[in-house]
Every structure is written in structure tokens, then in C-alpha cells.
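sorry for the late reply, my laptop died twice this morning and i had to redo everyting from scratch. anyway the thing you sent over, i finally got around to it. pasting the sequence first so we're on the same page, its 164 residues, then the predicted structure underneath. double check i copied it right bc i was rushing
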Amino acid sequence: MAATIDAAEFGDWARPSLVAMTRLAGRLAPHADADDIVQDALTRAWTKRTQFDSDRGTPTTWLLAIVADQARAARRSRIRRLRLVDDHAEVPDTAAEIPSADPDLERAIGRLAERQQLAVHLHYFVGLTVDETAAVMSCSPGTVKSTLFDARSRLRTLLGDDDD
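ok and here's the structure:
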């Protein structure tokens, strides 16, 4: 993407990714305003637009990687604020507090390693392919497949469904 692109062109370029960006922001940082995270991600994308490389992925995968970083920053900021308020405050299991049809599943996802959570959110909830998930996570598709396999195995154990 050229540095000389204007704001309207950038908006047209980013618009097809907005739903996926908002969905991912809401899943990764449920206590933050997803729209704020997406706005921060778009601002960051605008300032770094010359770094986009279409050989490394699609605009959506590049933008989702930025959203994941912004959501991580929002979670860290929230944890710091909670600790400032009460040094003995327990940090809540944020995934458990996401409104869902299956709160047990959400709690179990919250207990996965951060990398596994990101892969699960991107692949199963945002609907990215394995290749797109790999582009967002900056890893190989094989790593995503392995991460998802491990996540599913862990979820079966956490949910008491490990009768394989």
C-alpha cells in the first residue's frame, strides 16, 4: 500500500475487514470497548500503512494481527488498573464473563494458553482459514494446526469430554 493513499482510499481498503476486526476485539478483550480497539488498530494501520506487504498476507490478516496486539494491550492496561485499585485484587477470568450460549466453553477457552486462545478465536469464532490464522499469528499453517489440535485436546479435558 502506498504511503500517498488518502483517508477515503484507506477506508475502502479496510472496510471489508471491519466485521472480523470487531468480532476478534470483542473476543480477545471483552471488558474493553471493541470499537475502541478497532479504532486504535485502524489508527495504527494508517500510520504504518507503508509496512503492509501483500506478499505476506491479505489486508484482513494484517489488520487482524494489529487488532490482536491492540486487544492484548487493552487487557494489560485493564490488569494494571485493577492492580492499582487493589494490589490484592484477583484478575477476573475475562473469557468466563463473555456472554455466550455455553459459559463452560468460554471458561475453558479462558484457561488455554494465550497462543491457543488466539488460534481458537481466529479460526472458530472469526472464521479465518488455517492459512489466514497463520498469517495473523505470524507462524506456519502447520503450527496453527498443531496449536488448534492441542487446544481442542485441552478443551476436551477441561470440559470432561476426554473419552477418546
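The helical segments are 7-14, 18-28, 34-47, 59-85, 103-110, 114-125, 130-137, 141-158.
thats about all i looked at so far, will dig more tmrw
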